[in-house]
Amino acid sequence: MDQRLKFRARSRAREISPGFLRRLGGCLLFISVTAAPVHAQSWSAAKSAQIDQIVAHFRELNGADEATLPSLSLSIGIDGRLVAAKGYGSSDGKPVTGNTLYEIGSITKQFTAAAALEMIRSGAVVGHSGTKLSLATPLSAVFGDGQYWKAQPWLTVGRLLTMRSNLPNFTRRPPDGADPWQPISDSALFHDIETQPPSEQSDDFDYSNTNYFLLAELMEQSLQPGQTRPQTYHDLLRRRIFEPAGMANTRFIDDQQATFDPDASTLSAPISAALKVQSATLALPDYGRRLRPAFTHPDWLKGSADAVSTALDLFAWDKALMDPKIVPAAVRDAMLSGQARVSPTLYYGMGWFYEEKDDSTVFSHSGSVPGYTSYNEIVRQKDGRWFCVSILSNSDQLDGLDDLANSIGYIIGE
C-alpha cells in the first residue's frame, strides 16, 4: 500500500519545498532555494549537519512530545558511494540506526518487479503449460482457462507490472466475504479474486496491489531453466534480489522469529518499544489511535507490501539497480521507464514512479502499511551521475517523506 497513493499528480521539484520550509518555521532560511548546482554532489560535515537539522524539525512536526516523536532511519548514496546511514530517535531505549528494521510497504514492489523481469529474461516458462513468459503472456496462459481469465484475454504480465490491468485493488475494496482484520491464505485470496466480476479493458494507469499479488502468484507457477519445480516467491526474491545485492537483513513479515498480536494492548504503547530479530532490531509499529488496524497479516500484502528492510539495505538495493553487473541493464531499464502515464509529468514504470526534470530524472516509490511509512528515491542527472535517498519510519501517520527526501536532495546538490 503506497503512502496515501503518492502517485497523485503533485510535481516534486528538485529543490527544498517552500511549504516544507514554512512548516519548519523558517529555521532553514540560510539554505538558498534557487536551483542547486547538481554537478557538485559532494559530501561534507556541513551537509550532514544541515540534514540533521531538517530531520529533527520534521520529527518535531510529527510528534506531540518526546515519547511520540517518530523514529526515523535514512541512508544517502552518491554515485554508489554510501555517505550517510543513521537513525533519529530511539527504540526500546536504544538509538535507532541505519540498520534498524522497518516494514517498507509498497517499496516491496521494486523487488517483485525486478524478480519477475529477471524470470522473463532468463527464459522461465509456466509450469503446467510450458508457455514461455513474456510481458505479452496472457494471464489465462498462467492461471488457466477459467471463466474469469477467459473473460479478460487482454490481461497480460506486462499490464500487471505497469498498473494497467484495471483490476480492483483488494486492499482498498476487499473481495466479498473477506475480512481484512483476519488472516487469509494466498490461495483463498486468489480464489476470491477469481470470483469477482471481470474488469473492463483499459489502458489507463490504476494503482492496485492486486497486480503485484498476482505477480507473486505467477512466480510460484513458473519454472526457470533447469528447474523441475517452482520456487516460492520469497525464495525467488532472496536468491535473485536480496543475496546478490548484499541486502543482509532484508526479509519478509512472516520471517520474523518473534511475532506480535495486533489485538494486544501493548501495541498501543509508545513507539519506543522494539523487537529483536536476528542481527537487526525491528522497531515496533505506531498505529496512532487505532488499536486494531486492518491488513496486518502477511498474505494480504504478498508481492505488494510484505518486505522488511533497513535504510542500509535499501542503499545496497539502489546501488545494485544502477550496477548492470548485479541487476541486468535490460531489467533496470524496463523498471525505470515511463510505461503508464499518471499525470502530465509523472509516469509509472515497473515498481517505480518516473518523473523527468530539466536536469535530472527522478525515480521513486513510497510505502505505507499499518505502523510504518517509507520512501525510496533515485535521482539520475543528465551527465550520468546519480544519488539515492531512503527514509524509513515506524509511524503510519507521517506525510511528507517525499518532501523531506527532496530537501535532502537539494543539500546533496549544493
Automatic annotation (TrEMBL):
<dbReference type="Pfam" id="PF00144">
    <property type="entry name" value="Beta-lactamase"/>
</dbReference>
<dbReference type="InterPro" id="IPR050491">
    <property type="entry name" value="AmpC-like"/>
</dbReference>
<protein>
    <submittedName>
        <fullName>CubicO group peptidase (Beta-lactamase class C family)</fullName>
    </submittedName>
</protein>
<dbReference type="InterPro" id="IPR012338">
    <property type="entry name" value="Beta-lactam/transpept-like"/>
</dbReference>
<dbReference type="InterPro" id="IPR001466">
    <property type="entry name" value="Beta-lactam-related"/>
</dbReference>
<feature type="domain" description="Beta-lactamase-related">
    <location>
        <begin position="54"/>
        <end position="398"/>
    </location>
</feature>
